[in-house]
Amino acid sequence: MYEKEISKLIALAVGEGLSESEIENLLVPPKDISLGDICMPCFRLAKAFRKNPVAIAEELATKIEKPSFISDIKAVSGYLNFKFSASSSAKLVIEEVLEQKDKYGCSTEGEGKTICIDYSSVNICKPLHMGHLSTTVIGAALYRIHKALGYDVVGINHLGDWGTQFGKMIVAFKLWGDKDKIDANGVKALHEIYVKYHQEAEINPALDDEARAWFKKIEDGDSEAIQLYNWFKEVTLKEVNRVFDRLEVPFDSYNGEAFYNDKMAPVLDRLKDKGLLKESEGAQVVEFEDMPPCLLVKKDGATLYATRDLAAAYYRKATYNFYKCLYVVAYQQNLHFKQFFKVLELAGEPWAKDMHHVSFGMVSLEEGSMSTRSGNVVYLEDVINKAVDKARSIVEEKNPTLANKEEVAEMVGVGSVVFSALVNGRIKDIVFSYDKVLNFEGETCPYVQYTYARCSSLLARAGEDVDFSKGDYSVLDDDNSKELVRALSEYKKAVKESAEKFEPYLVTRSVLNICGLFNKFYFENRILNAPEGVKEARLALTSAVRTVIKNGFGLLGIKVPEKM
Ligand code: ARG
User: Which run of H or of E encompasses 269?
Assistant: First the structure.
């Protein structure tokens, strides 16, 4: 807020030697809000001005003429602090939010640039499990955040739909498969026979020969093999899409590993031409100085995960001409991405630097919070259902007369699961606990949703004809209100920074901070029965808070209820 205006004032006072934009980059919020709203550390100026920072700050403080939006300029140990007059800064921020509504936090900085985001990237015939939570919701949040910043975004579900396991699936289906059961139970039924296959193949290795033969048939386009393969794919996608719909996760492309079958040869040729592809014990690899080699073609001619990722990268560059290409994949695959990005760099592709592995930590369930079925797999859908069930009973208990209880339970339950993966830096491991995520107090999803409902109900009680323009913003000059206004203005920075760092939790934190400050404001101030002018100012602030909570949670993919 006022960064531009203040930079101009300082530049004028400094004279030659420091440009407005250089000054703007130096401006930061002071550690303590009682010192001011924005400050410039003068340490970097010391050399150029041959004075100590304390003296520079003091000199500037006397030199700068105070415009009306500033109430105080103070030099404190080498920092030049500016205090905004409450009335003008609050007015500026609140009016901006109220005017821009659902566009507040959006910008056009990404216009003309395309971001590819590879996330969720499920495997056919395998369940969508708890391990997919982070990739799915971090990917979807980054998708929405980039869209809000004006980028064109391509959401890609790079399906794991190729490999010898599909030969095994056909053998398993022919031996123990029951079409009706699979149609009814979906991936659970597919996965069951896949697990059985592995048990049986231990005793009877001949099964693996059969599986290889069926996989060869898929490769050769045999109609029965292809039909089964496509059906497995259909069953899996129908099921995962049900979860994606519920989480409102967007995808623009489902081009998976199989899509690159005919796109690897030219890439391998290219690497060969550049002298990068080396033969090693019959296989073809790219070697590095500081990492194990990247295996691209096996002795038997089979290609690998990395070969497909390379082909996909070239395809994405050619098709979308991306500005950045993100891969939201767990840190277990760090080495894979390091190797594959390095191959592109060694191949001299200038866009190798635009590839980013957005890695994240592991999720585990707090002991006793869920019994695992079929081995150790915890289905994401089961977790969501259980969270919604629990949310339903909480809502029932807290507000039995609520009209749309079911809808609210869904918002709270689904939201809490999503929130659990977006509340901390992504590299942090998560221990998921139903009780923790569904707690109405503390830094939780229901807490934010409840705060939103509180704002809504306050505004509803005030009625539609409140005239915000009557607001006397000078009443918002206590530290908490000022901090709340500042938090609203910093929300925009949080959105921008979350895109730069691929960290949606910066948006979550910004919203949580706003909620904390708002609730304090709510308990400390009369609002509806405050005198004229005061009431309107406080309601306008409430309305701005409500908008920012909704926008922020919207970016994260979490809905907010009007009542709860
Ligand atoms: N299907 C892979 C897995 O489950 C993740 C794919 C990630 N995306 C990629 N382009 N490699 O491990």
Answer: helix 265-273
Q: How far is the CA of 499 from the centre of ligand 1 (A)?
A: 22
Question: How far does residue 35's CA lie from ligand 1's centre (Å)?
Answer: 49
| Cα–Cα distance, 517 to 486 (Å, whole number) | 10
Length of the chain: 564
State pLDDT tens for residues 372-382: 444 568 899 99
The pLDDT tens digits for 36-75 are: 889 999 888 887 778 899 998 998 899 888 888 888 899 9
DSSP state of 531: P
Contact in structure between 452 and 512 (CB atoms under 8 Å)? no
Nearest CA to ligand 1 atom 11: 309
- What is the position in ligand 1's atom list of the atom closest to the CA of 309? 10
pLDDT > 90? residue 420: yes
Residues in contact with ligand 1 by the CB-under-6-Å rule are 118, 121, 123, 158, 160, 309, 312, 327, 329
Residues 6+ apart with CB under 8 A from 509: 423, 494
pTM: 0.90
Question: What single-letter DSSP state applies at residue 366?
Answer: P
Crossing angle for the helix pair 206-220 and 165-176, to the nearest 10 degrees = 110
Please give the single-letter amino acid code of residue 21.
S
DSSP 291: S
Cβ–Cβ under 8 Å, residues 257 and 163 = yes
Q: How much is the mean pLDDT over the chain? A: 93
φ, ψ dihedrals at 324, nearest 5° = -145, 150
DSSP 8-state symbol, 499:
H
Residues 241-275: tens digit of each pLDDT: 999 999 999 999 999 999 999 999 999 999 999 99
Contact 124, 219 (CB under 8 A): no
Substitution candidate for ligand 1 out of 118, 138, 329, 334 with most atoms within 8 A of CB: 329
